[in-house]
Amino acid sequence: MYAYDGLDETLVRERATQFRGQVARRISGELSEDDFKPLRLRNGLYLQLHAYMLRVAIPYGVLGSDQLRALARIARRYDRGYGHFTTRQNIQFNWIRLADTPDILDELAAAEMHAIQTSGNCIRNTTTDQFAGVAADEIEDPRPWAEIIRQWSTLHPEFSFLPRKFKIAISGSPSDRTAIAVHDIGLSMLHGPGGETGFKVWVGGGLGRTPMLAEALRDFLPGADLLSYLEAILRVFNIEGRRDNLYKSRIKILVSTLGIDRFRDLVEAEWAQIRDSALRLDEAEVSRIRARFSPPAYEATAESGQFAGRRLEDAAFARWSAANLFPHKQPGYAAVTVSLKPVGGIPGDMAADQMDALAGLADEYSHGEIRVTHRQNLILAHVRQDSLYDLWRALDSLGLATPNLMRVTDIIACPGLDFCGLATARSIPVAQRLSERLAEIDERHDLGELTINISGCINSCAHHHVGHIGILGLEKAGAESYQVTLGGSSAEDASLGKIIGRGFGADEIVTAIETIIVTWLELRQDGERFLDSLRRIGPAPFREALYGRE
Amino acid sequence: MAHLVITGNRLRDGAVVWRGAAGDWSRDIADASIHATEGQLAASLDTARLEEASGRIIGVYEVEVETRDHGVVPARLRERVRADGPTVSVV
Lengths: 550, 91
Fold this sequence. Notes:
Helices cover 37% and strands 18% of the residues of chain A. By secondary structure, chain A is of the alpha+beta class. In chain A, strands 16, 17, 18, 19, 20 and 21 form a six-stranded mixed sheet that branches. Chain B has helices at 38-54, 77-84, and strands at residues 4-10, 16-19, 25-26, 57-68, 71-74. The model of chain B has no long low-confidence stretch (mean pLDDT 93).
């Protein structure tokens, strides 16, 4: 994994010192809230319903075990003993005191971490595939490119005051596990005409109140041109993007308004001026960064017979193995998803004690590395197959072995009205009740891949538009109302869910989702996925089951 | 006019606070001063915003409340969650 160099260390420490002074001036009254708010947001500090919330960056979702221990210490010392992993591969602490934040930033800096650009109208954390570097279907490891973008975009003076926030995702595999279609820019790695690797560039995806799938901007971009091309896109957005209306300021609105062809013309014209500038990446620099992501020292080991035997002996282990393991390109190894979705639990929450224990397991079994997924789970990416049984038992004892990756209880949920100042309805209690109700149905019927995403407001932090079943919580006539969408996907077959009908009250929504699933089971063919059944038969049977023949 | 109380968040820790009759800020909504007329509310809000400018409290605004058997309760769920804390138990 990448390690800070001297420049990173200096920058992060200076920023923490700078913020200490800003906090002191705010508390003394020297700075007004109007003056201070943009400064705290630039350091990831929001004011939520009950307290300040600090969002800590986890670049491309990769953490060292000591960094996870540092997060555990912060959770214990400055919060209420837990943290919340987000759909942007970051972590949030919900109960932070303003006066403590300088000390927290110092502790983060000591662990080579920070909260820079986790808020504000700037380029946010670039996200990528949680299986980067280990996926058997990978064209190239996308993490060095994500790191190159991190270095380029960190405190980029030209892009610190964009019309709106800006999110980039990179996938190194044809199977999209990064939701590139719903990002401002999506980069999909592929081979070019001469066999060299580069990117297909997508632009203008996003969710929120105007959900849109990204459009193809360029079919092939050589790696050397990545930064100059990104800079050209950002420049067009910076100049042409709307600043007069918060709801029309994302790049998706600009692309939609101009049309992709006109937008492309503007980008190409800008790019022509800067393509051969200092932004061109020379191979030596790319190689230098790539070397920081060299694979760990894998041991030569064959496919484990012990692993196969344990699966035969222990049904619970077999079930977890089937759900939570991902094929590794190194023979004899597997990538493990550590579920943060216990049935009835809060999606993405993790206790400090669990963080410490997982850091120990990462050291013991996975070369000291942990990754965060955009589905709010964690990954141990380099586990020997013959260690899987011991690891599973350890995870199980920590409550971290729920066998539910991409299944109906692997629910993505935002903090919702229980914590978030923007939310219009609660999402966590709905997720908890749904997972309790649906776990048993999944156990009985083996529902397979079926994703549920619950957002507590139209800002769509839980990506409800791209859940196979999406739930949007709103406030209607003073009560919570939950609107259901069906048919979303954030994978390579990306689609936006469509509203099935009128919303449901808080006491109706769980039964409504159960009705959808029970209806589907009667129509399902040959073990197909819910999404495939829906695409085959359409929404009518579900609408009739929910509302009758209205 | 609906019955209204004045709320904000404490600068140092972001905690939810409610403004009392003596101009004090309490963590407990039961201590909040209830305003039944626009004149009362305007006067209190003016004072509260001066206190906001001094920096101890941030984000001052008024909240509609109802008086029930067990005390004062905000009319909107958002404010009930602010008053009572999250409706879920954390890990």
